[in-house]
Structures are given as C-alpha cells and as structure tokens.
Amino acid sequence: MRIVGALLLIWSLGLMVVGAVFVAALPGFTARRADTARARPGMSLLLGFVALVVVPAGVILLMASVIGIPLGLLLLTGYLATLMLGYVSAGVVLGQMGLRRIHPGQADKTVWRAAAASLAILALTLLSIIPVVGWLVWLAEWLTGMGVLLLQLGSTAKAAMR
Fold it and tell me: What is the residue-averaged pLDDT of the chain?
C-alpha cells in the first residue's frame, strides 16, 4: 500500500509540474480554456466522450492491418499523451476559474495561473482517490479536460487557416 501511495504522490507532483509548465509555456492558449469550458460545458463533455470511445476504436481498426500498425501505434502514443494533457487541462480550467473568483486581479498573471493550476490538479487528484466517488470525479474531470483541449485545438486550427 505504501508503494501505491508513493507512486500516486510522484504522479501527482509530476502532473502539477506539467500543469505549471503548460500554463507558463502557452499562456494565451491556456487562458482561453476556462472561457471555453464555461461557454460550452456540454460540448466539452460530449467531445471528451467521443474521444474516449472513437480513438481506441480507430487504433484497433488500424492495428488490424499490417499497413496500419505503424499509424495505429503513432495514434495510440498520441492518445496516451493526450489523456495526460486532458487531465491537466481540467486542472488548468478549474485553477483559472478558482483564481478568477478568489483573486480576480491576479488572474491575468502567468505565475498565479500556474500555481492555481497546480493546486487544482492536486485537489482533483485527491478527490479522485475517494472510494466509489473518485472514479466519477476522474471521469468527469478527464472528459471535460479532453473536450476543452480538443475544442481549443479546433478553434486555434480554424483561426490559423484564416
């Protein structure tokens, strides 16, 4: 049991660092996430659910053919990385929303947003280890974070094409 606790602590600290670096490296991109989540919560959940179901099915279909195996492995690797970023995105969104409520004057400062994201990721991780309710928290968090991430990537890609 101690090993599981130590691994959870290391994983949580790593996610907190990833969240802080994500906010610091892409301040404009991450700042718009809370607005996207607030404006389109249903679409965020739906898109996250679609990604949860469709991408693994696509990987399985690609792996069924010899030609598709490299592409399937590439898609699977990207999917696993996106799983983590979806989790982190939920923390970034929650941290941004909390910071806007508690310290609205500091909500535009990257350092404060990175700290708020790290604390939100820690809070969400602690909530997700609660028996029975924890997996629901994790699922809602991941679906929302993944949906917001995909919505934001889609709107950024559309803006780049114009």
Answer: 88
